[in-house]
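Practice problem. Given the sequence and the SMILES for pyridoxal-5'-phosphate, write out the predicted structure.
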Amino acid sequence: MKDVVDNYEVLKKVYDPSDFRKLGHQVIDLLADHLEKVQSDIEQPVLKYKTPTDELKYWQEDFSSSDSEMLDFFKNIIAHSTHVHHPRCMGHQLAVPSFIAALSGLVSDLLSNGTGVYEMGMASNALEKIVTDFVAGYIGYDEHASGFLTSGGTLANLTALLAARKAKAPNAVWENGHQEKLAVMVSEEAHYCIDRAARILGFGSEGIIKVPVNNSFQIETTLLETYLQKAKAKDIRVIAVIGCASSTATGSYDDLNALADFADKNDLWFHVDGAHGGGVAFSKQYSYLVKGINRADSVVIDFHKMLMIPALNTALVFKHGENSYKTFQQKAQYLWDSQHSQEWYNSGKRTFECTKLMMSVKVYSVIKMYGKDIFEKNIDRLYGLAKTFAAILLEQTDFDLAITPQSNIINFRFIGSKAGLEEINLLNATIRDTLIESGAFYIVQTMIGGRRYLRTTIMNPMTTETDFITLLDRIKDIVSELKKGYR
Ligand SMILES: Cc1ncc(COP(=O)(O)O)c(C=O)c1O
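Answer key:
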């Protein structure tokens, strides 16, 4: 009994609102100071790189120390993170979280009301319907559409393909297990999560049919029929074709109308992986890139990529909402009475997650505060900046632009005096490592056709033309230092 009383005293401290108020104000001040610093002082490092071993050692020592000063802990977390709000952070496809969405995250984490069952997420389930209907409208779907939010593009793509399997495989795999070989078709440039999804679905290596791409890294639609016939000859039933909008490495958009025609002709499910670039549906200027998206049976769009929301936050929208209710046919008596009724407010009927975050609050708050066209503004700014960067690169003889970007992903490499391929590949790897170690910029790298490219994704609307010019100057400095043998 004494334990119970003692524990109560300790736990009262954990749930003391005055502590929350005091520390909360301090944490907000700390974060605001950090944001002011990285946004206004360009000389601040984007990251202070440490090797994984050193980083682990640092935190192991912290873990074994008795210091419980929380403000210092948060300061250290910030210091050991890559600063996505820094205008020179141009690496991965991660949204720069809008401040209102981050604050909504604090509110929703505290309320923790995001479950797939209505009573434990009344507001979040209602907002989720509003937000996904909003997305459906921009996709060009009608009132039959319906969707939900889920934890990331990977999970959303898997969920969509499960729905495809339910709709297109006549020997209901969900009930009977696999009776025949099934497959999906997608470009060889698709994100690896599609390959992973097909394997999780039990399709095996033969069940992920990768169609080659054209010179612009878009699926070669003239090859679709041949690949379909090859599959049929092996008794493989293709159930779906997937369009990339856009692809990950080069940001290329597949011809969605051609894929929709192919799907119609062959009675396939048509899914669009718009995790990265599907958000152009919001933009009058760039929606031409996803012409035909309204013909897809399902569409994935990550809010945590192009749409200013912290990770993870993904919309999966179905052209015919009823399909989304057929994906998982299970009883969960303690949560809801029937799996067969279509209840948007019990979102767990349609999602992998049972408990999930209150994702809708973050998206809704951005729209509420800045208006329905705020996503369009972000897309237009970032895609426009990418065009500017590409134009700068084209003027430079020392650099080679992989392809004219359709989106905000730009791949380029230093070629200088045109040494051999191996040498150029090595040089670009060294450039990237040196840049990361210096902390001046954060960019990544990728291989395209055996060539190593420096890969940038322009995610931060605060990035400017000067940042691009400085990046190229910095790279030239690194190369001349390397030539002098300083490194
Ligand atoms: C085209 C595409 N699809 C899917 C994914 C996976 O999305 P997530 O990281 O949200 O799981 C990515 C991630 O970069 C992507 O670029």
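Check your answer against the key. DSSP finds 17 helices and eleven strands in the chain.
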